[in-house]
Specification:
The chain is mostly helical and 551 residues long. It is flat. It has 31 helices and no strands. The N terminus is likely disordered. InterPro entries: Ankyrin_rpt, Ankyrin_rpt-contain_sf.
Length: 551
C-alpha cells in the first residue's frame, strides 16, 4: 500500500473568488477603476482647479476646493465639478473628507441635480463614490442635499451595496437611517446582506439584521448569504445566519448545499457540524421525545453526538425515554453508543440507558450497534467485505470513521474494491466525504492506482476535479505517482489535464518538475498543454532543467 499523505499545510482557495469578494461594482475579480493622472489632467480635474499641488506634499494630487471656488466661479462648476473631485479622490486613494469644507462650498454652488449626476463608465453617483470610500460624513452632506439614497449604477449596485461590500458599518447605519432599500439586488443578484456576508463584517451584518434585512434571499446562482459567508470561511458571520434558521439543506442552482461550499474551508466545516442553532434544536427535540423534531434537526445537519450543558447526548435522551424509534434513527445517522458522555461519573451511554430507562430492548439495540460499528471499521481496514456487509446488515453506520476520519468508502477505494464501492454508495455513503487531509475516496483510488474502483466512483457521481486541502486534484496525484494508467482513466472520466494546483502548476508542469517521464509523455499524448509557462515565463523544458531533471 502506498504511503499516506502528510498533514495539510494550507487550504485551497474557493474557486477564483475566495479572496476577491466580487469587486467593487459587482463583477467577480474586478476592482475600483483607476482614473489615470493623464485623464484627470486633460479634462475633469482641470474643471475643479488649475492650482498645482506642491510636489513635496505627502498627499495625493487632489484639488484644494476650499480656497479655489469663489461665489462667481461656483456657478460655473456644474455636476462635472462634484463628480470630478470625487473621482480624483477615488483615483488617488484618499478620502473626500480631507477637504470637507471645500466640498461643502462646492455643494453650495452646484445646482441641485449635481448630487444625482453619474459618471459615464459605471454610472456612479457622488453618493456611490462616497459609499465606496466609506465616508459617512460625505454621505450625510450629499443626502442633506437630496442625493438619491437608492440610486443604482450600471451594474445594479446602490450606495448600500458598496458600503456593505467595503464593510463600512457607520456608513451603512447612515444609509439605512435615510431609507436605503435593504434587499435590492445588483446584476449578480447580490443584496447588501450578501455583500456583508462576503466581507464577513459582524458589525455590518448586525446593522442590517437590526433593520430587518432578509437573510434567506438567493442570488442569480441560488446562493444565500450563509453560503457566501461559508465559501469565504467567515465563521462568526455564519453563526449569525445559522442562529436565524439558515437552511443547511438548501441547494443552490448547481446543486450545492452549504456544506459543499464549506468543503475547502476547514473552520467553516467545523462551524457547520457544531452549529449551536441546529444542535440546540436536536437536543431540545430529543429531550422532549419529539421524533419529527429530531428528524428535522438531523436533516438540517445537526451533530448527532452533541451534548447539552449536563453532558447528555440526543441518544442518551432517547434511551432514557425508552423511545426505540428515536434510538434507531439516531444510530442510523451515526450516533455513537460507545462514547462516554460527560455526565458526572463518566459512565457510558449503554449503562445510562439501562439504569435510566430500564429498557432491555434499547440496551440490546445499543449493544448491537456498538458491535456492528466496531466490526465494520475492522473489516474495511482489512478488506474483508463479507464481514463488512454483515456489519451493515446489523445496523452499522455506513459513514462511521476511524483514525484520520477515513470512512468505509475510502477504505474500499484504498483496497481497490470496486464492488464494495458500489454497495457502500447504495447504502448512502457520501462520495464527497473527506478525511483530515481533505482526501476523498476518489483521491485514494487514484493514489492506489485502483482503476476499477476509480471508474466505479466516477460512475456513481464522484467529482474528478475535487481538490485535497493541499490543492491537489486526482490528476496531480497520478502525476506525482508517475502513473500513466490512472491519467488515462481520469481523462476518460472527463478530468481536465490543464487544471492548476495551489502553486499554479498544471499536471504536465508537475511532471517536469518531478522528473516523471512516463506521466509527462502520457500527458502529451492526452493533448495536455505542453506550451504552458509558469509565472516566471519558464516552459516545461526549462522547469525540468531548473529542477535538475535533465541530467
Amino acid at each position: 500500500m502506498k504511503k499516506f499523505p502528510g498533514s495539510a499545510k494550507k487550504l485551497p482557495p474557493v474557486a477564483e473568488e475566495s479572496d476577491d469578494v466580487g469587486g467593487v461594482f459587482g463583477l467577480p475579480g474586478t476592482h475600483l477603476p483607476e482614473i489615470s493622472p493623464k485623464a484627470t489632467q486633460n479634462g475633469r480635474r482641470r474643471s475643479v482647479t488649475s492650482r498645482q499641488v506642491s510636489a513635496s506634499s505627502s498627499r495625493s494630487r487632489l484639488p484644494a476646493l476650499g480656497s479655489e471656488l469663489g461665489d462667481d466661479q461656483g456657478h460655473n462648476h456644474t455636476a462635472t465639478s462634484l463628480l470630478a473631485h470625487l473621482e480624483a479622490c477615488a483615483s488617488a486613494g484618499t478620502s473626500p473628507e480631507e477637504d470637507l469644507e471645500g466640498l461643502q462650498r462646492l455643494l453650495k454652488h452646484c445646482p441641485g441635480q449635481a448630487v444625482n449626476a453619474s459618471e459615464a463608465s459605471f454610472g456612479l453617483s457622488p453618493l456611490a463614490f462616497a459609499a465606496n470610500s466609506g465616508s459617512a460624513m460625505v454621505a450625510k452632506l450629499l443626502l442633506d442635499e437630496q442625493a438619491d439614497v437608492n440610486a443604482v449604477c450600471k451594474l445594479g449596485n446602490t450606495a448600500l451595496h458598496l458600503a456593505a461590500r467595503g464593510g463600512h458599518t457607520q456608513l451603512t447605519e447612515v444609509l439605512v437611517a435615510r431609507g436605503a432599500a435593504l434587499d435590492g439586488r445588483n446584476a449578480e443578484g447580490w443584496t447588501p446582506m450578501i455583500w456583508a456576508a462576503m466581507s464577513g463584517r459582524e458589525g455590518l451584518i448586525e446593522v442590517l439584521l437590526a433593520a430587518q434585512a432578509e437573510v434567506q434571499l438567493q442570488d442569480n446562482e441560488g446562493r444565500t448569504a450563509l453560503m457566501w459567508a461559508t465559501r469565504h470561511g467567515h465563521v462568526p458571520a455564519m453563526r449569525h445566519f445559522l442562529a436565524l434558521g439558515g437552511d443547511l439543506t438548501l441547494k443552490d442552482y448547481s446543486g450545492q448545499t452549504v456544506m459543499h461550499h464549506a468543503c475547502q474551508q476547514r473552520a467553516a466545516r467545523k462551524a457547520l457540524v457544531s452549529t449551536e442553532a441546529v444542535n440546540s434544536r436536536l437536543l431540545h427535540s430529543a429531550s422532549a421525545g419529539d421524533l419529527p423534531g429530531v428528524k428535522q434537526a438531523i436533516a438540517a445537519g445537526a451533530t448527532v453526538n452533541i451534548t447539552d450543558s449536563e453532558g447528555a447526548s440526543p441518544l442518551l435522551w432517547a434511551a432514557a425515554r425508552s423511545n426505540n424509534s428515536m434510538v434507531g434513527l439516531l444510530l442510523s445517522h451515526g450516533a455513537d453508543p460507545g462514547r462516554e458522555d460527560s455526565v458526572p461519573g463518566g459512565t457510558q451511554l449503554l449503562r445510562h440507558s439501562t439504569l435510566r430507562a430500564h429498557s432491555s430492548a434499547i440496551a440490546e439495540v445499543l449493544r448491537n450497534a456498538m458491535k456492528a460499528n466496531k466490526l465494520l471499521l475492522e473489516s474495511v481496514k482489512e478488506g474483508d467485505w463479507t464481514a463488512a456487509s454483515n456489519a451493515l446488515a446489523n445496523g452499522a453506520f455506513v459513514e462511521i470513521a476511524g483514525k484520520c476520519e477515513r470512512s468505509p468508502l475510502m477504505w474500499a477505494a484504498i483496497h481497490g474494491a470496486a464492488d464494495a464501492v458500489v454497495e457502500l454508495v447504495k447504502g448512502r455513503a457520501a462520495l464527497d466525504r473527506r478525511d483530515v487531509h481533505g482526501w476523498t475516496a476518489l483521491h485514494w483510488a487514484t493514489n492506489q492506482g485502483a482503476a476499477k474502483a476509480l471508474s466505479a466512483l466516477h460512475h456513481c457521481g464522484a467529482d474528478v476535479l475535487t481538490r485535497t486541502y493541499d490543492g491537489d486534484t486526482p490528476q496531480h496525484i497520478a502525476v506525482k505517482n508517475n502513473d500513466d494508467v490512472m491519467l488515462i482513466v481520469l481523462r476518460c472520466a472527463g478530468a481536465d489535464m490543464n487544471v492548476k494546483d495551489l502553486q499554479g502548476h498544471t499536471p504536465i508542469q508537475v511532471a517536469a518538475i518531478r522528473g516523471c517521464a512516463k506521466a509527462l509523455n502520457t500527458l502529451v499524448a492526452l493533448q495536455a498543454d505542453a506550451e504552458v509557462r509558469d509565472a516566471g515565463g519558464r516552459g516545461v523544458f526549462s522547469l525540468a532543467v531548473a529542477n535538475g531533471q535533465m541530467a
